[in-house]
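Q: I have 178 residues here and want to know how they pack in 3D. Can you give me a structure?
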Amino acid sequence: MIQGAASKTQLQIRWVSLIADFLLAGMVVGPVAAPFLAASKLPILPMIADIIYFMGRHVCPQPQMGIVLAAPFIMAVCMRCYGTVVGLLLTRLLYGVTTGKGNYWLHQYGWSGAALASVLMMAYALELAAEVLEWWSFNNYVVTLFGLVTGLAWGLFTMPILHGSRLLSVDIYARESL
């Protein structure tokens, strides 16, 4: 190639995958980090914690049931919600290893897979209803397990869809020299 000539290369960015991973990372780290940020003496960190707690209050039905991590501050969500996030994280890691190959990925079964995922995702709602109806009391281990089932079901259906083959192509011109 002639020195100084430009060649065209193509960079493929999985933009949906990047956004989904960014959001999942925030959901995994945020609720755990919030109590430590709130307890911090640095001026801006408690403000960041307030933002995380605000989001937690709007997505979690029982944020006041979060576990204490940095007394007197609690996690931004209850363990049911965090169990759901952990289930999503586990399926994301599984997808990273399997790249969507395997019989357990529910999207490949069409409406039947969607129905099964929907039924399994109801574990969260059923446990919450049982608690509200006072069939049993709140227990962090129980709610975490039900949240985990919901997160696994959600992840086993959506991860191949979110992290599939949708690509954003970007042309990059690079100068090549001899």
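Q: Anything worth noting?
A: The chain has a mean pLDDT of 88. Strands lie at 6-13, 68-70, 73-74, 168-175.
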